[in-house]
């Protein structure tokens, strides 16, 4: 089977210590249950994003892993030039999975072991425009009813740790019960 015929996959992985907008591409990353990406500035059981820490540093970290679909990079390439893995701060760049359409609580089984649970949408911030002017507005859209659509990826927590690398397969398990649309976290 060719890569074109493959199902959902990891395109690239990235990690960076400290608090920075972009992350550094890596051969692999290690997901740690309850914490996030080993060595990443946003790893931790409690919130690690500076603006959220100022409000309440004891709240649980629902943003341990940031995932973006590579199709978004494809969409933006003509307008903003090529985007490389890690440029938008994502830990995992995916392809062939509609991350934004997943319900809250969907579980992604990635590679041989890792399992993450989707907690919500990434709420894009003004740092995106500092990276590339106009990119913030491009990550926000409106549906036919005028509702705001956030396209900057999804956030997840790590349920089962494991190593993740480009080429790893991704399978999705949706929660039973009523569909709960993703909201910003």
3D architecture notes:
- The structure is a single chain.
- With 185 residues, this protein is α+β, with helices and mostly antiparallel strands.
- A hairpin with a 5-residue loop joins strand 9 (140-142) and strand 10 (148-150).
- The mean pLDDT is 94.
- The longest helix is centred in the middle third of the chain and has 11 residues, at 70-80.
- It is 14% helix and 32% strand.
- It has one domain: PK beta-barrel domain-like (M1 Pyruvate Kinase, Domain 3), CATH 2.40.33.20.
- The chain starts with 8 loop residues before the first strand and ends in a 12-residue tail after the last strand.
- The radius of gyration is 16 Å and the shape is globular.
Considering the chains and any ligands shown, give keywords for the structure.
single chain, 185 residues, alpha+beta, M1 Pyruvate Kinase, Domain 3, eight-stranded mixed beta sheet, three-stranded antiparallel beta sheet, 4 helices, 13 strands, 32% strand, globular
Brief account:
The protein is of the alpha+beta class and 185 residues long. The chain has a single domain, classed as Beta Barrel (M1 Pyruvate Kinase, Domain 3), CATH 2.40.33.
Topology diagram in text:
Blueprint: E1 9-15, E2 24-26, E3 28-32, E4 36-37, H1 50-55, E5 65-69, H2 70-80, E6 92-95, E7 107-110, E8 114-121, H3 127-131, H4 135-138, E9 140-142, E10 148-150, E11 154-160, E12 162-165, E13 170-173
Parallel strand pairs: 5-6
Antiparallel strand pairs: 1-2, 1-6, 3-4, 3-12, 5-11, 7-8, 7-13, 8-11, 9-10
């Amino acid at each position: 089977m060719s890569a074109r015929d493959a199902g959902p996959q990891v395109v690239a992985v990235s990690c960076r210590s400290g608090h920075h907008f972009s992350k550094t591409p890596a051969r692999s990353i290690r997901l740690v249950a309850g914490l996030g990406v080993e060595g990443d500035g946003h790893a931790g059981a409690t919130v690690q994003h500076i603006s959220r820490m100022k409000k309440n540093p004891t709240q649980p970290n629902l943003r341990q892993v940031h995932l973006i679909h590579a199709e978004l990079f494809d969409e933006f390439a003509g307008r903003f030039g090529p985007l490389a893995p890690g440029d938008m701060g994502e830990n995992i760049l995916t392809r062939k999975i509609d991350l934004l359409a997943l319900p809250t609580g969907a579980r992604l089984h990635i590679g041989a072991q890792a399992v993450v649970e989707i907690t919500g949408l990434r709420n894009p911030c003004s740092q995106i425009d500092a990276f590339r002017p106009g990119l913030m507005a491009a990550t926000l859209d409106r549906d036919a009813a005028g509702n705001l659509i956030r396209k900057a990826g999804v956030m997840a927590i790590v349920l089962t740790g494991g190593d993740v690398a480009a080429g790893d397969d991704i399978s999705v398990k949706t929660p039973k019960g009523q569909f709960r649309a993703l909201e910003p976290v």
